[in-house]
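U., I forgot to send this yesterday:
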Amino acid sequence: MATSPSRYDTIVIGSGMGGTSAAALLAKAGLRTLLLEKNPRLGGSCSYYEKRGFHIDYGTHMFSRGWKGPLGAVQRRLGIPRERRVRFVRTRDIAVLRGQGFELAVPSEGWRMPAFCLEAVRLMKVPLRELPRVTKLFADIVTMSEAAIAEWDGRTVEELLLEYTDNPRLFGALGLLLGLYFILPFWEVSAGEAIWCFQKMARDNALSYPVGGSYALPRTLCDAAARYGASIETRAGVRRIEPAADGKLRVTTSDGRELTARAVVSTTSRRELADGLCPPGTLPSAWSARASATRGSYIAVQAKIALRRPRERAGCLVGSVARDPGFDPLAITMDDYRVMFADIAAGRVPKVVPIYCPIPTNFDAALGPPGTQLLTACMVAPTTEDGHGTRPIDGWQDSERKWIDAMMAAMAALIPGLEADTLFADTMGVQAIASWIGKRGGPAVSTGQTPEQSGARRPGVRTPLHGLYVAGDGAGARGVGTELACASGMLCADAVLADLGGGASAGARS
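Result:
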């Protein structure tokens, strides 16, 4: 662990994909850089733990653009030799969709997609007259120009879909497809953001998972940062960020040390900066008010399920299970979708339990003992505070167990006989996740990708306090999850280098 010197060019707080991307690029540019991580292990939501021979992601991950998106771009910018770069793997079937009497494999090869779409329409019993409309929707999305996408930034996915169909089953399926990765209901997701992300994912056709698990990504960037001279500390939380007398910024760590730097990059939420890390009056009141009102996404409860033998072949299981046996999925209405998310927002387990479950060992068998399988399931859940962080959800601490129980029951329904093959099942609640990632309330995306917070309206990586920047999912860039954070980290590094008089290489927006 590095303890000196106390003066740096840049201090980066947080070792998730935003922090490690920024720190490595700043160190490569020759700046004396310190990376601080409050947890005992690096990686943020891409960190891991080990149990009984399994290497288990702390978060729940698939990577929509793999090596072709920002996760590959930052490694190229850092000059990491090809043989040292993270290797991404694909499965023949990206996912299997299952539940409510419905099962369909999603292929990874483009030539299999037309047959998949026809079978999906048949299973959902969508009238054939809807097919031309759906075809036009996807053709428009894939070919839409940047200027046209920008015009959709301020409107919702719901508004986009209404221009093509009002069939409830099809509308809901398309809405979930375009809104799933943002962990918000599709009537709150920016259509421009959804179009941009889907277009990139479709053109790249690289939805995948890394060999070595998600931790391979921050580990590779931290290794590069260290080679370029960066100092890296774990168990090093931050209590305060404030101006220093010499025009620099002072960072006070959880153990009472005072460190100074010309620039500080924070990867926590803008709300945390405004309401906690920066003393009152440090940031302009108008900026602080906007930051405090930032809309975050929802989060999820999780289960890491180790199996004695493989049960699933696809890269991911996506499913839903109705808690009411009388529920008819073919009779679903738009009101049903809204009721489901109203229940989630209020801390009530919804009547239909949605499951998203990547299967890491189907990409890299070495993540578990020979012959085993690892499932990393999650179910969307409310944050520990309401959407704007103004109050705790009533009774959430007492009801969290109900969410975990509902998730486990849904997994057992989706995979009959699951319990008999289970070696262990570790469950994780929202409060544990919030504590690890260090964002109040625990949103998966601290600045949710709503129409008010996307495109030109998305907060920038600079703050009004000279020398203070935000990287990660709180500001800047477009994208999905960790890819968004990585792209933001690159933008942030470029901003710091420009402001401090350094150069910046191209590619941060790729």
